[in-house]
Amino acid sequence: MKSMREMSILVTGGGSGIGTDCARRFCQEGARVTISGRRLEKLEAVQAELGEHCHIIQGDVTEQGDRERMVAAAVAHGGGKLDALVNNAANMYRQPVDGYTEAFLQEAFNTNVISAMMLSSMVVPHLEMTQGAIVFIGSTHTRRAFPGASPYATTKAALEGLTKVMAAELGPKQIRTGCILPGAVSTELNLRAGIFSAEEAPDRYDAVAGLHALGRIGTGTEVAEGVEYLICAEWVTGVALEVDGGIGLGASNF
Ligand SMILES: NC(=O)c1ccc[n+]([C@@H]2O[C@H](COP(=O)([O-])OP(=O)(O)OC[C@H]3O[C@@H](n4cnc5c(N)ncnc54)[C@H](OP(=O)(O)O)[C@@H]3O)[C@@H](O)[C@H]2O)c1
Known about the structure:
- By secondary structure, the chain is of the alpha/beta class.
- Helix 5 links the parallel strand 5 (133-137) and strand 6 (176-182).
- It has helices at 17-28, 40-50, 64-77, 102-130, 150-170, 189-192, 201-209, 220-232, and strands at residues 8-12, 32-37, 54-58, 84-87, 133-137, 176-182, 239-243.
- NADP nicotinamide-adenine-dinucleotide phosphate (NAP) binds next to helix 1 and helix 6.
């Protein structure tokens, strides 16, 4: 098992939620972490907390020029190297099947899938030098069906497929891949998508807590622990790791 000490890690969408919790944990473990996102004030707040181990780069993962700047910034902050890419940036996309619009679906796949594919492509030469890892953030939405959430669920299913093919293709270069499937974690994700309001959030998370075998929603730190494992475990590649409190089991009392 590798240590994170002195690793150089790029976490997209690190200005909030699970991405921030990954950055916090990796910095505590001694890594040099670069976080990206569109909202500068969110990134600056994280950097103010985490200090010089954390570097920020503003940008949109759907823009190729921004992606290039993100990778270059992470390599520079890491002293000329990159050990891991965490494809965390994403949005929640819900639309009923009989109300699909092409533009919405294209935005969902562009943001949640194609951006991660392009970033992963760009970091291959760097990760080959460090025998590094690419981690995708999937979702329990590929284990439990939530009506209305098919655009989001299919983007996350795509990431699981990518994880396996990339593992096979990049294995000879000693680059590993992995996909974390979190259960419910209270973050901005659903609020930003207008699924429910901040006032409604406690009740909504209480309602979903009971679907988890462990009876509660998770924390971003618990998800970050799984991401750390996939980055550091040297004989693990191509896996989908459920860090989900058991919601993916689909258990019910009958
Ligand atoms: N929370 C959960 O229950 C849960 C469960 C399963 C999986 N996940 C996954 O966990 C990951 C993190 O989500 P989260 O829950 O922590 O939500 P979050 O707080 O909303 O984080 C998502 C981040 O992605 C960034 N982002 C979105 N679109 C972007 C774009 N086009 N360019 C650059 N950055 C972009 C956002 O920052 P800006 O808006 O500033 O760009 C935001 O910081 C996502 O992949 C999500 O699908 C979450």
